[in-house]
Design a protein that fits this description.
Elements: E1 4-8, H1 13-29, E2 32-40, H2 51-82, E3 87-94, H3 97-107, E4 112-116, H4 121-128, H5 131-138, E5 143-146
Parallel strand pairs: 1-2, 1-4, 2-3, 4-5
Helix pairs in contact: 3-5
Length: 147
């Protein structure tokens, strides 16, 4: 059955539901969890013509992303450990969140992606897009959506 669940989280309230739901599922299945954070790349629009300024912005952005991902994945790891569930943490910086989730899930050897959805409805989905919907449509792995 499913032995390694891939669970992307972003720090929102829904992330905590993803953590709790995936931990409960992992307990039932005897599975481990790969917790994952994908941080956005620095947009090119904030880059400067000055190489020094651009380098500083890139470094600040990378440091901020690293700290956020570490904090979030540490919380997830503590919850999993308290429940007796094996946990591996992973994070990347990428332009395409959807593609990063699918690529990293496969690299980690996971056999299911577990996600939560914001449930924004058709207008919210049109304005903000839906990572979950895109991943369901394009992933080679099964996707379990928690509400």
């Amino acid at each position: 059955m499913y032995k390694n669940l891939f669970v992307p989280v972003d720090g929102s309230e829904l992330s905590h539901r993803a953590m709790d739901g995936s931990i409960e599922l992992a307990q039932q299945l005897g599975a481990t969890i790969t917790g994952f954070v994908v941080e956005p790349d620095l947009p090119l629009s904030v880059m400067s013509n000055d190489a020094q300024t651009s380098a500083e912005r890139i470094q600040r952005h990378a440091s901020k992303n690293e700290a956020h991902a570490k904090s979030l994945l540490d919380q997830f790891a503590q919850r999993a450990q308290a429940a007796g569930v094996g946990f591996v943490a992973s994070h990347v910086t990428a332009y395409s969140v959807d593609q990063a989730i699918m690529d990293e899930a496969e690299k980690a050897g996971c056999d299911m992606i577990v996600m939560v959805t914001h449930g924004r409805g058709p207008i919210g989905e049109f304005v903000f897009g839906s990572h979950t919907k895109s991943i369901i449509a394009r992933s080679k792995l099964p996707v379990l959506v928690l509400h």
